[in-house]
Specification:
Length: 101
Amino acid sequence: MTGPQSRTCAACQRVLAAHEVYYRFSLVLEGEQDLLDPSGEADSGHGDALAELVQRLEAGSEDSSELEAQVHWERTGVACAECRSVAVRMLTPVAEDAGPH
């Protein structure tokens, strides 16, 4: 019978010992856009923004996997305590009265 599997931190790539605390994470980034034309009016000189987008996609000028990654990206894994601290600091809103970093 074998022991626990070794785990690797997804951020720093450090191999975590079986006795170390680690943190499981799941991160999903989904692109959203409320308005195609922020002014609320279609610019007749440039055509409809949605039609332009469809035309660009059909022309294949951009890599479809890159476009997909811009709309939906997800990752799961484990992080060590140090990388967890960095992620929490990075994703926690800063208080308005906080001074310079």
